[in-house]
Amino acid sequence: MRFPVPSLLGLYGVLSATAVSLVLGEGEGEVTGLETQDQPPHFLSVRPSLAKGYESEANIPTKKYFTESSFHHHYDGRFANSTLPEEKVIPYLSNLIQTYLETMNSIGAETWIMHGSLLSWWWNQKIFPWDNDLDVQISEPTIHFLADYYNFTDHHFEIPGVEGGRTYLLEINPNYVVKSTKDRLNVIDGRWIDKSSGLFIDITAVRPDDDKRKRGYPEALMCKDRHHYDESDIFPLRDSYYEDVPVKIPYAYAALLAEEYGAASMTKTDFQGHHFSDESKIWEKYSRKMKRILRRAWRGDDLPKRSGTEPLIRMDDV
Amino acid sequence: MATYESDHELDDSENLSYHHSSSSSSPSRFSRISRPLIESVRNGWQSHSNISYHSLSPENDKNPRWLQMTLSVVAAPRFRRYVVVYVTLFILSWCGWSLFLRPLLQDRSDLLHSLDPASKSESGGWFGSNSLPKFDDLIQVRTLDPDLVPMAPLEGVDAAEWKSKRLIVVGDVHGCKEELVKLLDKVSFSEEDGDHLIFTGDLINKGPDSAGVVDLAREHSASCVRGNHEDRVLLFRHEIMSPTAMTEAEEVQSQIFSSKELKERALARSLTDEQAQWLEACPVILDVGFVQGMGQVAVVHGGLVPGVDFEKQDPSSVMTMRTIDLDTHVPSASHDGLNWAKMFDKHQSILHTSLKHSNADPHSQTTTVIYGHDAKRSLNIRTYTKGLDTGCYKGGKLTALVIQDGGKQELVQVKCHTNYSKDE
């Protein structure tokens, strides 16, 4: 890998310090001895140098960079052998997004939530209780910046109630320089991985859609996962909160949600075996009784059933 | 025996001329007209008895009897006249029904169904049931100082002592300062005489003098609401002014941002702190409160979802909505669809009807919304919604709704002579 070791170590120390101070509210940085020798590169300070060329359309990679584990497609197999117990998934995901947002915020990298995460933010600014993945996007200059200065960086966080804290890895897909949507094996540009559990966040870069811009859409944006946007739907970003930490939200969030999931996604209060409580503003799992009522209504199995197993005998047979 | 030929028999003779001579029909027709009539008389029954008795023309042989009868009925002149009259009447009434009456009734029943609480469970829920996200640097609701609101003249108060008040609500200005000055002149705006100026948002951007309009509004201590253009420009300004931001070279910027974004960023940068602070203080919803003769009044930029409290209205939608979904009540900035104002107006009129019996003053419970944003629909005045964006920066008009004591309303407009959208 091409990052200089001392600067990385220094960076690691500074980052840990910021991260720890953000989580604990006081500076308790780790001792690395090398910190602050090199100032960590700040996103905007290097932004003008980020105009970059791309691989040509002909060189579409034939290998997938990020692989999923054999046991579950939302776990990174390099860091885990099994899924987490069901009740632990949401707290782990919550820490995952909190640490990601804190880190991006402290290095000044522009990122925002999208897709399912944006929808869950819309409802109550919390991860859906049935979710097991998170979606974030970054702008194009940011992916260059992260690839150049922060690829394969570890970020350690003290987490209340977790002994020894957790370490998170930022990994950028080297195929991010291939812009074409034909690269279907590498639609994900980066990952923020919880090294203790293997859970990760998919990071996707949003880039200018040059083809479409040439055809007269000056605001066209695209991702390698074949999502298309208008610049003014995403920018300027709004400041809000998700899982109790500051987060950026795309400008026209309601329009984006309506387009991706339909208008009813913002109004239907029953979803995935959960009901959105009007009082608590939380997605509550259906109680057993509720489930029975709903199942009855749906499957009609409250119809009378014949007891016993003997077949029907027709009267004229007797 | 000689017979005098009727029309049909004349036709026969014409047909015959086809059969008997190889000459074209026009000379024969011509010669027939120029000949004395007597020459047309002949003993037709003798020479062509089979034709004149059995059929009118050779091809008619193939037509069944019922068709012949129909044809002869149609051929009757009076019948034809009536057919024309009745067909026209039918087409007219059908057009009236299908183009006017049926859509009207359909709209009405759709709206009633859409607003019926019973259909809420049918669609799985309505817009506004989420826990509203918090946004930094955005004020949701602000209440107007009640001292500024016009009242009904009280009896027993001397007319000379009575200080009348007016609210002047102005639609989207978009930096057209000249036109705004003209409009204020036309309504003879005077703060000293109890006038208060309110803007429906989008004071800035697109037009020639955004900063001038903001300064004028501040001079007159006007009230305003946050429009989508204020929203975008202020968000960009926050980004630019944040401690982590740095100024970038022009050519780098033009690589990263589209021309629309570049313009908005330039405007954001050009605003002074005072101007930006004044704009930041504009709420998404301005609650004017109770206006005698009008009921509750609110000012927003885009619109409001019926039946949702001010505090629970989604701010981004309030600033951008034009249409609304019938089933889910989800608003949209799209031009195509049901105008949100139509639904809101219906909702309020249903509310008014239901309050009539129980409440002495049903108007105190209804809300009238004054808004801008929809230049395409232009002036859109209903009982409970007043759309004032008449596209001034595109060379349309600038509109003010003047609310006087007792809730008397008057529209005042000035023409905007320059189309600034051409410069874009």
UniProtKB/TrEMBL annotation, chain A:
Signal peptide (from-to): 1-25
Taxonomy, superkingdom: Eukaryota
InterPro entries reported for this sequence: FKTN/MNN4/W02B3.4-1, LicD/FKTN/FKRP_NTP_transf
Keywords from the UniProt entry: Membrane, Signal, Transmembrane, Transmembrane helix
Occurrences of domain LicD/FKTN/FKRP nucleotidyltransferase (ranges): 110-213
Compartmental location: Membrane
Pfam family, one: LicD
Matching PANTHER family: FUKUTIN-RELATED (PTHR15407), PROTEIN (MNN4), PUTATIVE (AFU_ORTHOLOGUE AFUA_1G03790)-RELATED (PTHR15407:SF32)
Name of the featured protein: LicD/FKTN/FKRP nucleotidyltransferase domain-containing protein
Lineage: Eukaryota, Fungi, Dikarya, Ascomycota, Pezizomycotina
From TrEMBL, chain B:
Upper taxonomic lineage: Eukaryota, Fungi, Dikarya, Ascomycota, Pezizomycotina
Record InterPro entries: Ap4A_hydrolase, Calcineurin-like_PHP, Metallo-depent_PP-like
Any one GO molecular function term: endopolyphosphatase activity
CDD domains for the chain: MPP_PPP_family
GO cellular component: cytoplasm
Protein keywords: Membrane, Transmembrane, Transmembrane helix
Record-given protein name: Calcineurin-like phosphoesterase domain-containing protein
GO-annotated biological processes: polyphosphate catabolic process
Domain Calcineurin-like phosphoesterase: 166-351
Ribosomal protein keyword on record: no
Region (Disordered): 1-30
Gene3D superfamilies: 3.60.21.10
Transmembrane segments: 82-100
Biased composition annotated in UniProt, kind: Low complexity: 21-30
